[in-house]
Structures are given as structure tokens and as C-alpha cells.
Task: inverse folding
């Protein structure tokens, strides 16, 4: 059974940085596609960044040049480095593991950008 646990959220001022982590249990991580999504109040969940097993990444236009997704297969962990944070980045951030038809979500971590 795959479980995902996110951490690293918090309160940060505009222009600040945070690094989110997501640790996966089980043995599928290294061959899985990992993604970070976010959901702001009253809005639909949206893709932020994604990384495949080969390390190829893709980003939402709104975060390109500010966020970076990476993975450490030895630690079963995916990261989201968030720089130059804006008020509109405030949301609950979720990681997602996709392996074939299997999809698993973490419980989410709150990121609040506020002055």
C-alpha cells in the first residue's frame, strides 16, 4: 500500500521561499510519476509541477522560473522548492504518485503567503 506524507508548509512573506517534501512508502516510487498540485479556497485543484521517473519535469506557467521539482529515489522523496512566493501561491499543496493506473494522494500541506 502506497502512502504519501507531505511536509514543509508554513507561513511565509511575499518574496520568500519554502521547500516542500513528500515521502512515499513502498517500492513503486522510483518508477512512478510524481506531481505537486495545489488547491486554493474556492478553486479547483491544479497541477503545479510534475517529474517522471527519468527526471523530466513540467511546470504550470504560473510557477515557471520560481518553483523547482526534484526527486531523490534513494529516499523515496519528491521536493518542491518554491522561491519568490506570491500571495496567489497560497493554497494547500498535495503530492501525487502515479504508477500505471494507480494514483495516490498525500494529505496536503498548507502554504500561506502573507505580509
Result:
Amino acid at each position: 500500500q502506497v502512502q504519501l506524507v507531505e511536509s514543509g508548509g508554513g507561513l511565509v512573506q511575499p518574496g520568500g521561499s519554502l521547500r516542500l517534501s513528500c515521502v512515499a512508502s513502498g517500492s513503486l516510487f522510483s518508477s512512478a510519476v510524481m506531481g505537486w498540485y495545489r488547491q486554493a479556497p474556492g478553486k479547483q485543484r491544479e497541477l503545479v509541477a510534475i517529474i517522471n521517473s527519468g527526471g523530466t519535469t513540467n511546470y504550470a506557467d504560473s510557477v515557471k522560473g520560481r518553483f523547482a521539482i526534484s526527486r531523490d529515489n534513494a529516499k523515496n522523496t519528491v521536493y518542491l522548492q518554491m522561491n519568490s512566493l506570491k500571495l496567489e501561491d497560497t493554497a494547500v499543496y498535495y503530492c501525487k504518485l502515479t504508477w500505471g493506473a494507480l494514483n495516490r494522494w498525500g494529505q496536503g500541506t498548507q502554504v500561506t503567503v502573507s505580509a
User: Anything to note?
Assistant: Residues 30 and 73 are 5 Å apart (CA to CA). The chain has a mean pLDDT of 97. The chain is about 0% helix and 50% strand.
